[in-house]
Specification:
The structure is a homotetramer.
Chain A lengths: L6 E2 L10 H10 L11 H14 L5 E5 L2 H12 L4 E6 L3 H4 L4 H4 L4 E4 L8 H13 L8 E8 L10 H13 L4 E5 L2 H5 L8 H7 L2 E5 L9 E5 L8 H7 L8 H10 L4 H4 L2 H16 L3 E2 L7 E7 H8 L2 E2 L1 E7 L2 E7 L6 H15 L1
Parallel strand pairs in A: 1-11, 3-4, 3-5, 5-6, 6-7
Antiparallel strand pairs in A: 2-8, 7-8, 9-10, 10-13, 12-13
Helix pairs in contact in A: 1-11, 2-11, 6-7, 13-15, 14-15
Chain lengths: 351, 351, 351, 351
């Protein structure tokens, strides 16, 4: 399956790494390093992440990919008899091939609202569980999982995140934020949720690299020291401990130098805004109104056939017999030329 | 923990990638690719591996690291009530933090002989199990795991591998070979076990990249098509499916171009031979006589303290109150200069 | 928590065993038997169950309780990457404390309709999964689980069961029926689903004992021989293999002698019908109209407080701020006197 | 497989229950009870066990069988990355079909000495683990499992148990004692280990019922309150929560009334001593010298063929080409007549 002649809007992980990362990989390629993230570059990266998140005592670990990170963190924080609360559209609910259940834990789903959990619905669920006379025969909710941006590219407000934190505190369970696309939230004018706010509200979160400028890699942050004892061993047990751990440290050290991570996503947001405006102007209907780098469009199937000849996109779901929801994603690597070419195709297809 | 001033002999994964790999990474960095190994470069790499192994119908998958690969393959091939037979020194037995048990399977250990399983002991064990009146209350051996080279750097003979194959066939269970350091076997004059022989004898094996010239990555080969149904999903479930799968394909495509994989390990073997000869000449005792890139030496603790100031090595185990077994490892990246410097330190320390 | 002075309508497992079972337990108490169900009485019970189900080649196993049986059968029939489709109200979905996830499998829920799965919704779900471009990143539905009667005491029609069978066959996955309360279906005039029909339509099912006249025990039937290889070992692995297996065989041998199992539930159904009629006559509202031994009533909370002083019932769920749904259950052990006393209390409470 | 004409020495679970238990089962059969062990009889049994063990704050739970109990307790006490230390002959090591691994945990075996762990070897192992530079890549020992009597019928001394306790305390891990055959220890003159001593030295233990006078059932004791939070839910998750929990409570209430449990095993010990003496007198060789109710004899195969026609025994292991180790077990139900008949057969066979 080659897509080299198609315009690359299928996902935000279609290209390699930010040039600054490749440059450092080349520079350090023959420098001997100790393994498993015990090297000095990884340590420097951790220090920079702690600073950016304003949590000086945080434990920071580097893993390879998103599903792996979710499964490892969730297994580390849950007791054996607990499950994780998530939106029914959450990545862990639907698109991780049962990685959470493989670790023995149930995903306890609540209905999503444009991809988000509603804090008061979480509170009601946790409260009802505690009052349920049958609760000892049920899976105890042991943490809350959210993603920011969500699967649908939507954003939690600062008030929502603070309220989720309060609720989790009140029910004595951790809050975990999946930031696979966090750079695109941070680059978004509508975003109210900064790294320090996330660190203040969450017991664990990860800063996405794979979709945000690295070749691969996700940085897990536990703002409170020793929140997840023996996490190194848990990583190993999950096959999530990279031998050449400095490759991860180096990439995050680069992203957290000179604030790169916080502005890396801007071209993606600008491109996505341009595309959203054009789509509406050309008469297409958006499936969701989202402010980040993912665009969900309802396409007539006939037009989709023509689009498919020139654009690489993601199938999302069937809308009705004659329409399909597709996803177009921009990324840190999207160029103005690609965007303009896409607009031209969309304009042509819309006729 | 920085080791930049020390001579790098602690492991064979202390440096980055073969220069040819870095070059291709740079060249393809901005070429859009589809994800998860569905790209054309990964397909080309699979074709080259099939050719090198002379198994044209093989299924080939690329994973990130060794523990992850062992756990994913073993979980894919075992029934829920089966365990895996391994040497008591096997990587899965000792140094994978329980990754196999995390998947629900017992590691059934047999005594090692210089790191190897003895075929007739495997046969006796499987035969005894089948005859045991209590077998239905026990974990059924469902596959045999070996590594080549072994944890101790030793090599199976062609006759041993063929015999293990026969035994597994007779007992109707698969044979799985962990080739994390396979390039160092292939580069070794004593080695009798070629890629085609491995493919002919094993139901599954992996060709190591992380320790053999890539940044990361292991190539799993199932010589018979469809031997592990839904392996892609099983990888996802294990957090072992790399989003930017072409990074793995590209690295293995490079290693399997112009026979690079089969001669990449030669400098390591030459360096190791030189070091082994020098060690014996200087009066040190080898813990194991091994032909590959790992050297196990019994060091007086006092000398070790001096060595540690100049050489990065691996602690292996305590030998007695006054001696320690250490491992020195060479790699594809070891230079003649490094080897000569090591010899000088060893000569000095031996005095 | 003693309930000895309350009328026993909280569940259908509040009393011991049918007197014929206790009698045989006493008679055989000092007869030495081989363990683990390898005894002659267990073999006789298996033969009687095969005859009653008209499946002469069936494999029959005896386990101790319902959750244990569901988990063991589901783990035996699913591949590691598969999940089980169930109604969102199914026992495995809600009230088994995550026993299915403990075995590594996801419960894939569909909306219930009075406790039942709709066959066409199952078909649509399985068909959509197979067409989903992301299916390899998702949990594959690997079997369908239903219960008869359902959690809400409702019954599948013969046509529905046949259609579920057809659908599962078409999608090449097994159908599993949880018959924890099967005796109450068989005793019910509305029931169209006989033991032979179940055996013809299902790949696995269990005949409930715990709620249907035994001290404990469930009989698992695989109508096709060798459908679940090594099930004995899987039972042991799940802690589900009773040492004194003949205790289970003896109980089922008794239930399947002279058709006891098929008429044992009649008094429960008659009592339940009497209670349902009285409830409606007294002005109570039923939450569900069900034909079997469970009665779901919406009670004003004030009346419930009074009821609680004389009747042992089950809390089901809050209905609204002023009403609660409760369950009253009759059983094989319910006496006409108990039923009349309950009616008197209900009449009094309704005033 | 019928053994009704054979003398019953194959195991200690070949007969039903102590008559006092059957009597109470009959008496309470129609008394309604609340489920899951929340009844008054279970509560009374717990109080009696606490008194007998002199641990007034203990949490006591009733489970159905030994493998189930081991798996549930071990899963409850271990963190996800920990394993359990056991003798290589331990029941959990060999004869539970991988139930511990099914829960995700490795059994870390040490060599047995007549079935026992040596305290100093446990200490050395735990100490070495903590000093091992690779420990973060290994399974951390998270508890120690022993059985008393052991698989070979041997007994720990009071000093050994106290020392194991000290060692576990020093290494901050729990000690768990499997008392499946505890009544036979308590009835043995050589035994130094009382229930209060066990409660003082162990973090968890279970008092065996299945092999010691009940139809089924094991009583788990956690001497310190809340040592295993949510154990009720963990039992449910493991399929180990009996619906009619009072059946377990009633049996243990009977065993702990008037000290029955502590003298119930005496006839078994007397019979075993008689048999051991006779065996030696007739020229047989004991495989192990054990003081409890299990007798391990090395039998010439030819004599074994004759024995098999009249005695039901257990195959243990092949000794050499011409001899087999068998186990003869006595129980609370063994009669003097059966013992005398066995002696006659043994005398005859020995000729």
């Amino acid at each position: 399956m080659s897509s080299s002649h198609l315009l690359p809007f299928a996902s935000d992980y279609m290209e390699g790494a930010h040039p600054a990362i490749l440059k450092r990989l080349a520079e350090t390629n023959r420098t001997p390093m100790p393994g498993y993230g015990t090297d000095a570059i990884s340590e420097a990266a951790r220090a920079k992440i702690r600073a950016a998140c304003q949590c000086p005592d945080a434990d920071v670990y580097f893993l390879v990919g998103g599903t792996q990170t979710n499964a490892t963190v969730i297994d580390a924080l849950l007791a054996s008899y607990q499950g994780v609360v998530a939106a029914d559209t959450g990545h862990i609910s639907l698109h991780e091939a049962g990685a959470i259940e493989f670790g023995g834990h149930k995903v306890l789903t609540l209905p999503h609202h444009s991809g988000k959990l509603r804090p008061e619905e979480v509170n009601a669920y946790l409260t009802a569980f505690e009052a349920d006379g049958n609760r000892d025969h049920m899976v105890m909710p042991g943490m809350v999982y959210i993603s920011h941006p969500t699967e649908y590219g939507t954003l939690y407000t600062a008030a929502e995140l603070r309220r989720l934190h309060e609720i989790c505190q009140a029910h004595k369970i951790p809050l975990f934020l999946d930031g696979a696309r966090l750079a695109y939230a941070l680059a978004c004018p509508e975003n109210e949720v900064s790294l320090p706010l996330i660190a203040a509200c969450c017991d664990a979160f990860y800063i996405g690299g794979t979709k945000c400028g690295t070749l691969f890699g996700e940085a897990v942050v536990f703002p409170q020291k020793d929140r997840a004892p023996h996490f190194f061993t848990i990583m190993k047990q999950h096959g999530a401990l990279l031998a050449k751990g400095w490759l991860l440290g180096l990439q995050f050290d680069t992203l957290f130098t000179d604030g790169l991570y916080e502005h890396l996503g801007r071209p993606a947001i600008q491109a996505a805004d341009t595309i959203r405006n054009a789509l509406q102007q050309y008469g297409y209907h958006l499936f969701f109104k989202t402010p980040t780098n993912q665009i969900f469009v309802i396409m007539p199937n006939e037009q989709l056939d023509r689009l498919a000849k020139e654009v690489s996109y993601s199938f999302w779901e069937a809308y009705d017999a004659e329409h399909t929801v597709i996803r177009l994603a921009t990324s840190w690597a999207t160029t103005p030329e690609e965007t303009q070419q896409l607009l031209a195709v969309l304009a042509e297809t819309a006729r």
